[in-house]
Amino acid sequence: MQAIRTRSLGFVGRRGITTASEGVLKPRARTPPPPNEWEELMHSRSKQHEIVSYFSQLGSTQTRDNSFQPHHPLHRPPGPHEATISALMAAGAHLGHSHKLLRPAFMPYAYGTRSGVTIINLEETVPLLRRAANVLRAVARNGGSVVFLGTHESLRPAVIKAAQRIGHNAFHVASRWKPGTLTNSEQIFGSQITPGLQIVPDLVVLLNPADNLVAIRECAVKHVPTIGIIDSNIDPRLVTYPIPANDDSVRTAELISGLLSLAGKEGATAYLEQKEQSQQQRAA
Description:
alpha/beta, 4-stranded antiparallel β-sheet
């Protein structure tokens, strides 16, 4: 073996170092190849998947799909029969105004006060909400028209989504209510257009009735029933079917309007089916 004399105590060969004291051949330590990043990533993912699959059997079964999310009241509201106190409380429907602004007529719907804030009794809200859903379903089943009214900018998606969900004979007002829309329709829409349109709806749903007193007065003059979210600072007798809840919460308005729109959708579907059946009977 060819070797080269060095300053160290041994000789450097082609394949290793031979020391004078040991007289054995020791191979050089080879540096490991650079790790493959893709293999490491796949290994870490598989390990994480094993850990999740193992511990998921021991923990909670709640996921993003079966637990409450802030966007669910607008896009995936509960059905009329699924209205619960927990869903309303999660949306903040139990929070009223200051106890100093409590109306005496609202006392039957008040649970109490906490930190100077009136707490709304949701046990009274749930049956009134279901009653309003039954009213809207009956109006839509008979082919009636429904108007969702919410004049705040934050309520615009809720009223638009509710009217689109019902589809047939459902409308929305997301901007300012023009005074005289119902009582002075000839001046608002014109005398030539008014005879061919149904200006007066069969039901009006108000998400912020305190800001639309003019619309409520016009509905009373035209004998149009109204459904409204009534807070602790509003007289429940202001609308025909009050729903005691927090009218300042956008999530509460989305939840209630979505639930009512699903009830209206059921009624509109039943109306269209009944209409098709009558047409088929006439044709036969």
